[in-house]
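The instructor's notes for this session suggest beginning with a concrete chain rather than abstract definitions. Hand out the sequence below and ask the class to guess, before any prediction is shown, which regions might be ordered.
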Amino acid sequence: MMAGRWVRSFLGGFAGLLLLAGGPRADTLTLAVMPVSATQREAINELTARYNSRGVHQVLVVAYPHEQFKARIDALLSDPDSGLDVIVWFGGERLRRLIRNGRLRPLNELTDVLNEDRFTASALSTVRYAERYWGMPVSYYPWGIFYRKSVFRQLGLKPPATGQALDAVMARLRAAGLTPFALGSDAPWTLLAWFDYLNLRLNGKPFHERLTAGEIPFTDDQVRQVFTVGPAG
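After discussion, reveal the predicted structure:
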């Protein structure tokens, strides 16, 4: 059976992006995942057990630590002994880089599923390259800013709805001796997320895509400008 059909029937509710990384073995499909929590790992195991109980084919899940998987992805996909068939990965430039390096196969068997009846055009654009689809978007999640209500009540502040109001809130917090923003993670990608949002807002999506594709250097004056604006801790 074609691996694409396996992917289609196994999708379930996995978070992330499923990509065909190589040809499947006769009876087992190996899926590489990078769960970020015990809850997510349990959900993946439950879905796998549910699928395997059908007895048609078997899925073997290989879990990698999140940051380790990102660092080792090229080595894993170029190693013929890794045994990986499908991976959970990211859309956009991270996907396109693996495609250009010849690490992936297009999902030709799923063209009847990858359409705007099931996905938004923006979601499909993250997995489309060279007129082909290379992955299936299966989830997304919002980003937001949490604030401490007790501090806002104490200082008489309200959640800002505009950039100007945000500047005023930050000034008030600093005047009270408080740091306006903090990132609760030791992973570098959370810091880069701040840059992504600010660069997209200031320089636009086409510029950001060319930057992440390596067509514009990070020393460009428009990039330097990003580091002079925005919320500062």
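Then share the key points. Confidence is low (pLDDT under 50) at residues 1-16. The chain has ten helices and seven strands.
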